[in-house]
Write a structure and sequence with these properties.
The structure holds 2 protein chains of 2 kinds. Helix content of chain A is 76%, strand content 3%. Chain A has 22 helices and 2 strands. Chain A has helices spanning 6-25, 30-53, 86-103, 112-131, 135-144, 146-156, 161-190, 195-200, 205-222, 231-238, 241-266, 268-273, 275-294, 299-328, 332-366, 377-380, 382-396, 402-417, 419-443, 451-454, 461-479, 482-500; strands at residues 63-71, 76-82. In chain A, strands 1-2 form a two-stranded antiparallel ribbon. In chain A, strand 1 and strand 2 form a beta hairpin. The relative contact order of chain A is 0.10. Chain B is an all-alpha fold. Chain B has helices at residues 15-32, 40-60, 77-103, 109-127, 131-149, 156-187, 192-201, 206-223, 231-238, 241-248, 250-266, 271-294, 299-319, 323-350, 366-369, 371-385, 391-405, 409-435, 448-466, 469-478; strands at 66-68, 73-75. Chain B is globular, with a radius of gyration of 22 Å. The chains are: A mainly alpha, B mainly alpha.
Chain lengths: 504, 479
Amino acid sequence: MSDLPLLSLVIWLPIIGGLVVLAAGASGNNGVVRWTALLSSIVVFLVSLPLWTGFSLTTHEMQFVEQAAWIPAFNITYHLGVDGISMPLILLTTFTTILVVIAGWQVIQNRVAQYMACFLIMEGMMNGVFASLDGILFYVFWEAMLIPMFLVIGIWGGKNRVYATIKFFLYTFFGSVFLLVALIYLYFQAGTFSILDFQAVPISMNAQILIFLAFLIAFAVKVPMWPVHTWLPDAHVQAPTGGSVILAAIMLKLGAYGFLRFMIPIVPDASAELDWLIITMSLIAVVYIALIALVQEDMKKLVAYSSISHMGFVTLGFFIVFDIYTQTGSVSGAALGMEGAMVQMISHGFVSGAMFLCIGVMYDRMHSRNISDYGGVVNTMPWFAALFVFFAMANVGLPGTSGFVGEFMVILGAFQANFWYAFLAGTTLILGAAYTLWMVKRVIFGEVKNDKVAALKDLNGRETFMLGTLAFFVLLLGVYPAPLLEVMHSTVDNLLQQAVTSKL
Amino acid sequence: MAIVNFEMPNFLPALPEMFVLGMACFILILDLFIKQQDRVITYLLSIATLVGAAFLTISLSDGERHLTFSGSFVSDPMGDVLKLFIYLVTAVVFLYSRDYLKKRDLFKGEYFVLGLFGVLGMMVMVSAHSMLTLYMGLELLSLSLYALVAFQRDSLKATEAAMKYFILGAIASGMLLYGMSMLYGASGSLNIAEIGAYAALNTDNTVLMFGLVFVIVGLGFKLGAVPFHMWVPDVYQGAPSSVTLYIATAPKIAAFAMVMRLLVEGVGDLHNEWQSLLVVLAVLSIAIGNVVAIAQTNIKRMLAYSAISHVGFILIGLLAGTDNGYSSAMFYVVVYSLMSMGGFGMIILLSRSGFEADKLDDFKGLNERSPWMAAMMMILMFSMAGVPPTVGFYAKLSVLQAAVDVEMVWLAVYAVVFSVIGAFYYLRIIRLMYFDKPMDTNKIEAGIDMRIALSVNSLGMLVLGLFPAALMQWCIAVI
């Protein structure tokens, strides 16, 4: 099994699958289209599993490496490989795509083939981003991914979809072009476009700061961090359920992944110098965006803001390591914050995906996302209510769910850096609980609000399957996060070494 | 003996040019005897001429540089590659145009003959090694283009466009000629190599500088760079789509060659001087082209402004002044001509008799009318916007790295910021095709050959995007 080019397969199989789905769509038989799409996504997931089982825990080196000449003129190679950071994210992607295909099963009736194909092609590209070890290859996937998402929001989105999707595209495109210039600059320093060479090449402080800022624009838009987050609520609200799930579960992780793969190892000195900037932005996101989430009337918007707030935790966890290192003089303490942030990323992938699926379940029945249109859903949909409350608890960070592990680790790490960081980050436990549970109260509990709610039907088999699987993983990660932590341990240690080794 | 030192020149390097000239004259005469229903013979012969020329160019190409006609004509690998692309693009232009012309009663021999004379002009420009040869090629091309624009006699718009084009083009030629005369005055020679040798020794010669400025003004006009771009949108919009298609593609390649011959091979030692002039042209072109394109409602006009901004990018590669920069500019110009061929081809595809499909709104809901063609147009638009995995991205990448290579990071940043602004109007087309309902529900009439050619054209942008190495290497090898 290990001889197969697994990474190439997880990139290209879904793309081929997407093309097959498009071809099947020409026949006009939507049943065939849906089953082909589901089959492709399951096959890809199965193909990605050996990445986990065959993963060596003892090394921080890249694994499953593939390398081939691609554009010799600029020393650009087709160079793939995964480490403990990217491998779990690839699995998250392949897993989430199955759910998205299932989520769109009955809901999407219009141009089914194009819908399914967009998600499959997007899956391949997102896997490509996580697996790329070449700067330009990374950039190609990073940008190309925007195209299917642009179409998904624009074709199957809500009323204001055109505005939302163009805003989404231009925001992220704007951020990315600075990444491109930074990559080109690094190419002339390192002589190749290999990310690993970028990480090794010494760079002067002035250059590091400029590269840092270029990376910051690119990745902060994608995460998104305050104050460049405004595209996300629009995109989420207008996107179809599947689009929201992918956006929240995977795309936001890409920005955070960029920080780990590019910013910290390539410009460690500038990162140490300017970590206050990112910490400030993260804390503002955690506190201020949580306050904004509190006043939302639209459920999707609320979860969107909650995502921004949670991603603030992730970036906080990444960048407190520099403070911890200066205070304690060792990187072992810093590992807590970094690993916590990683767990938070995976956990948020499950939880936010589940939240958007839940909202999708309600929207399919009621065609409304306004909190005020709901009330007393528990009376008519008890099973759904149970799962929804469970995911809400995970979103809050209740112990025993995956949400707890990451947040707890990041807050513990933050204590070592600065009491006030931990204090401000800790407010999320209150604010997060406030906005999530208040929404749950208004939507799920209370008297049955109107006839529409009274007529609701509980989950069907398809929906139970989706939400049930997610609930299982949220719980599993909550009570037994060790396997995930083991996978990332050596990589995080190595990353921390890189972070504190000056490249001047 | 009246002529003492006359040496018989070596005609061999100019064989493709002579072949095209002979065939064009032959077709011109033959066409007089062809009935309208057999006019397709003219078309096929024209394509055959291009194929024949390609064959000759390939078989004569030996990777060496040959000078002939007393050093006023050069045949080198760069010229051969550029010529091959000129043939290819022109042949596809003829193919795209055939149905369009038929439906408008314009399917006449003149279109093809003028097209071939234009090709001959471009070939001479590409191979010119003396200012006289260069000017001759340029005028041959320009006069063919003026006539082609005015080709639809009864169209007021086309006549107006031709008039504008002629007057502004004549001014540009005048400027160029004036600049050339100064270069001649300073150096005492028309030969590009001799001017270069003189310039290398006299980098601070005032007359030479003046000449250089006028030459660049002339080149700016021909390339359509801001502030000499005024003719571009009017001509693109006014000319029949098949003529716009022609103007927007192959002549860009020839204009690139002209810049290479004059500025790089000629006064390459004055690089510092012309670089600052080209920076101004590039900066303005990128800004004006991208910003003004947003305000357009006519897609031909929009693509005209887009062409202006692409010229800005090509100039970035040129002004870097390194081999790396020249090859990236060459890569860009080739890629651009292929993209723009597809873009205008799509307008022709959607048009039918009495309907031009040149409004942005005519693209509404194309995904419902023909998902395949909408996907093709989408690839082209993303390629023009420079979004990977299309080849347009690598074109931008290569000129940007050329700029960063010579420490002009600010120019690269400037260019990418404006390319984001540019992305907006390309996205708008995709938005119209995919997110809106169709206004025009008629069936697309285009023939199967056109559909296939256009699909190959568009998919080519994607395939070249996945495997750009070969074309890039080619451009690097011949510079």
